[in-house]
């Protein structure tokens, strides 16, 4: 029994029209909309809901204003759901009810976030991905790597929250939901994955000296590094602002590109994270700029010039041409 991953997230927003345009440009499919909520889907059916701020029945967030207020994790079967219900029954805010046509159980985590579980609605999908040629392994023969004009995210891969007590909150996820710690910043940050076998992290908890609680970012998995770049360039052309990237995380090995999100926090395209098993031994890191990013472009790339922001567009037919 283990959690499979993120099935749905819910934002609260004070500007649904802007959120509609934002997530559409991001590459999500608009599945339904009303005056009070938007429902988007990733390629595998993972959902992103944006509800009107203050809408009755929507859980309160851990901070004021637009933010992420709920994470729904998927499990494999109704029997798994029963076992998790027993594990969470004594927790604050415990619920066992039907929502959006499915049974959901959940509670409030120690950080104040609404946590829910349901039998997964995501579907297995088959997508073509770029293959990397290395010195030791030439897997791409007579075939160029892909170039993406925009991204179509596969799923919500992980969420990151600021927490007032990283140790207590990470213990909840490990002991109640069966998460496994991948790596950590001792007493400052915990990288957690849903199961022993899986990507580097599905949840990252970060404790600031201020004790701030709230959303840091939501990360969307794309096919490969080329889609990180193609998606980011398209999103930049749409006029959305980069926070940092593209770049590469040394802790998880993933390539990233972060943008500012009007629905709260940041949003990330990422690909090529480490895959771990039960044999993995968690590491400890001291926080620092080069630990967060091995390299990164500050301010992003301009989607039109394909160069760093404020750099001149290329001139002539060849890079070596000079005026």
TrEMBL record:
Residues 155-272 form the VOC domain. Pfam families: Glyoxalase. InterPro entries: Glyas_Bleomycin-R_OHBP_Dase (IPR029068), Glyas_Fos-R_dOase_dom (IPR004360), VOC_core (IPR037523). Residues 302-323 are annotated as: Disordered. It comes from the Bacteria. SUPFAM superfamilies: Glyoxalase/Bleomycin resistance protein/Dihydroxybiphenyl dioxygenase (SSF54593). This is VOC family protein. It comes from Aquincola agrisoli.
């Amino acid at each position: 029994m283990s959690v499979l991953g993120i099935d749905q997230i819910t934002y609260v927003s004070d500007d649904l029209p802007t959120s509609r345009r934002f997530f559409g440009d991001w590459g999500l499919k608009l599945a339904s909309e009303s005056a009070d909520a938007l429902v988007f889907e990733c390629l595998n059916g993972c959902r992103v809901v944006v509800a009107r701020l203050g809408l009755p029945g929507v859980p309160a967030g851990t901070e004021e204003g637009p933010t992420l207020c709920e994470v729904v994790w998927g499990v494999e079967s109704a029997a798994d759901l029963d076992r998790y219900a027993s594990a969470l029954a004594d927790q604050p805010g415990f619920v066992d009810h039907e929502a959006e046509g499915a049974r959901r159980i959940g509670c409030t985590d120690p950080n104040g976030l609404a946590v829910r579980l349901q039998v997964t609605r995501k579907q297995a999908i088959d997508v073509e991905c770029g293959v990397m040629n290395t010195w030791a392994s030439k897997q791409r023969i007579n075939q160029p790597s892909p170039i993406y004009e925009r991204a179509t995210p596969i799923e919500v891969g992980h969420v990151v929250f600021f927490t007032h007590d990283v140790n207590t909150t990470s213990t909840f996820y490990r002991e109640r939901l069966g998460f496994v710690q991948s790596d950590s910043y001792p007493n400052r940050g915990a990288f957690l994955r849903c199961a022993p076998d899986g990507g580097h992290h599905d949840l990252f908890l970060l404790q600031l000296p201020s004790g701030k609680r709230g959303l840091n970012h939501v990360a969307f998995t794309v096919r490969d590094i080329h889609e990180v770049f193609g998606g980011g360039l398209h999103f930049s052309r749409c006029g959305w602002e980069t926070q940092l990237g593209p770049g590469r995380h040394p802790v998880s090995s993933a390539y990233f590109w972060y943008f500012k999100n009007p629905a709260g926090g940041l949003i990330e395209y990422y690909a090529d994270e480490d895959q771990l098993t039960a044999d993995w031994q968690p590491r400890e890191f001291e926080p620092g700029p080069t630990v967060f990013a091995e390299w990164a472009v500050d301010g992003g790339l301009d989607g039109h010039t394909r160069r760093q922001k404020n750099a001149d567009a290329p001139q002539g037919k060849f890079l070596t041409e000079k005026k």
